[in-house]
Fold this protein.
Amino acid sequence: MSDLEQKNDSLLRLYLTFFKMGMVTFGGGYAMLPILEREVVEKYRWADKEKVLDYYAVSQGLPGIIAVNVAVFIGYHRKKVPGGIAAALGVVSPCILIITLIAACLQNFQNNPYVQHALGGISVCVCALIASTLLGLWKKSVKDVTGFVIFLVVAALSLLTEISPILIVIAAAIAGILIREVQRRRKA
Amino acid sequence: MIYLQLFWEFFKIGLFAVGGGMATIPFLEHLSESSGWYPLSFITDMIAISESTPGPIGINMATYVGYNVGGLPGGFIATLGVVVPSIAIVTIVSRYMEKFSGNRLMDNAFYGLRPAVIGLILVAGLTVVQTSFFHVYQLADFARLGEVLDWRKLVLFVLMFFAIRKFNKHPIFYIAVAAVIGIVFQF
């Protein structure tokens, strides 16, 4: 392993990378996906697109904050338990700094017109980033008609009903197992 | 010992709130009643601040409550409380995922999970579109769709989308540009 590679893989690098992500993620865990892909998949190649998506899927069904869960998955994947801790601390550190600053000195920060206008622009941008990321992930995740049906059913359930995402995730996993098993037996 | 109490309360939230940041709100309401640390009305402020600052919403809320209850160390300890269960649970799950990687049952489960998570993220994105592109309070009146839709935002969305696809710059770049555009054009 060259010095540069080693440096890229260090705990400090994990911490700083997730620090950066925590600082520019506006919204919930899903808003982190585009920047996560950029940093973790493209820049450092810590995991491929499918792996990141798998981590998202499992994180949805686990307790805890989704963004933190995904960070721990990637950190653990690279550097075991210390890596998971470094990534989790990285993603929460900017929050601690920023929120403390706001709570301590910037009363009514959220009502400031400049903040409001900037957020109006940022939310549009986050939508465009997510749309672009989903387009990129589509081919890798929706591979056939069955996958497309699962996608449609999940999107409809999540949009139109109040069913919890945990149940949806568990049902999708069971559906995957059953469908593939039936397909395999038919072939045999 | 307020810090120990803070850690314990947020540890429980991290352990039991499934489904991301917004899932912590019912827990925070309960905590308001049981501890008396902050009034219920405080939660609305907290959501507004969490949504206007970067970072996962659940974490922002933990830091905000912690700070207001116990100052700087309070914010740090509450946040740590939420994160510790995640680290433990994900570490255990990761071990099993690595152990069973290549296992047929596991691969088949992910065959179903991948399109499902695309669906879930899409709907999460649509919720943002709904609240940010439309003036939701008027949405019942669909006949006047042209008036309730914020056309400037739609134009920015289309421009942004094509810029992202074409230039492949870092997401931070687009977020910064969008913030400036938002301020200049008063979004």
Residues 58 and 135 of chain A are 21 Å apart (CA to CA). Chain A has two domains: 3-138, 142-188. Chain A has a mean pLDDT of 88. The first helix of chain A runs from residue 3 to 8.
